Recover the amino acids of this structure.
């Protein structure tokens, strides 16, 4: 596979290491890595599929986090850390808020507290272990902080994914959303700069498929039956309000399994294709 080919190119890796200098992240270098890069990782279905893909390509999974980043509820991914998706016993979808959003606004994620007083990071890391994900978690907050601005860190960050690792991430660029505009303004120029420097583009696999249905969207945010049961019990134990989700109607257990399987096959097929045929294409920027 492409990652293995580049990993065994010692000249290429030496050039990348020299280009990065002190910006080389210590977690890279011992073996090929598959990287889940989030501010904070939870044991949702999207993460579980990441681990499957890491095993498929024979890369050691790495959870790379930035708990030093600021929590802002306007960011859907960050808000999702405090508003969890649930499947109820009769198949209805629901959410539960485990934190007070205004009270935690603009705090460092690592300092955010739940309604119970527990730490947000500790809570989600405990869910990973509950679901059997005992993986390396690397806190990259200091690295980001040293580079000051996002416009400064995409080039050195993505350079790690030319020969040392595969990044599982979404960089939308095909609409006029705030995220897509950011990709075109900041991320794509960094990828083009990498290609101009080393002649190759980073290995990036899309973390979620495009054009999802609402039900598929909820699926990736949801959890395994074991974690889902734990979260339901947690909400009841602490008197947290479980709110019905307005997307879709109730489903039976068989329908939930069927929807989950369909969504899972959708992403699995997409990822295997991307992994085996050259990885993800961003607009005019092709993986080589």
């Amino acid at each position: 596979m492409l990652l293995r080919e580049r990993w065994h190119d010692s000249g290429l890796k030496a050039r990348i290491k020299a280009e990065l200098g002190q910006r080389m992240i210590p977690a890279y270098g011992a073996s090929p890595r598959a990287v889940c890069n989030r501010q904070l990782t939870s044991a949702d279905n999207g993460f579980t599929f990441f681990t499957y893909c890491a095993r498929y390509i024979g890369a050691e999974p790495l959870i790379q986090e930035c708990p030093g980043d600021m929590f802002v509820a306007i960011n859907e991914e960050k808000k999702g850390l405090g508003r969890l998706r649930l499947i109820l016993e009769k198949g209805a979808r629901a959410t539960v808020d485990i934190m007070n959003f205004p009270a935690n606004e603009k705090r460092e994620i690592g300092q955010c507290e739940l309604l119970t007083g527990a730490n947000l990071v500790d809570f989600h890391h405990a869910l990973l272990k509950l679901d059997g994900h005992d993986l390396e978690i690397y806190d990259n907050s200091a690295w980001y902080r040293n580079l000051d601005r996002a416009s400064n860190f995409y080039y050195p960050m993505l350079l790690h994914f030319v020969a040392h690792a595969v990044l599982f991430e979404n960089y939308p660029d095909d609409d006029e959303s705030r995220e897509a505009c950011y990709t075109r303004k900041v991320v794509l120029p960094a990828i083009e700069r990498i290609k101009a420097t080393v002649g190759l583009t980073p290995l990036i696999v899309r973390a979620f498929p495009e054009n999802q249905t609402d039900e598929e969207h909820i699926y990736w945010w949801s959890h395994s039956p074991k974690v889902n049961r734990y979260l339901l019990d947690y909400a009841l134990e602490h008197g947290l309000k479980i709110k019905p989700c307005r997307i879709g109607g109730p489903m039976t257990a068989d329908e939930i399994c069927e929807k989950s399987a369909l969504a899972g096959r959708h992403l699995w097929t997409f990822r295997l294709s991307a992994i085996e045929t050259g990885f993800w294409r961003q607009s005019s920027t092709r993986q080589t």
Q: What stands out?
A: The beta strands are 33-37, 60-65, 83-87, 93-97, 136-139, 165-168, 204-205, 242-244.
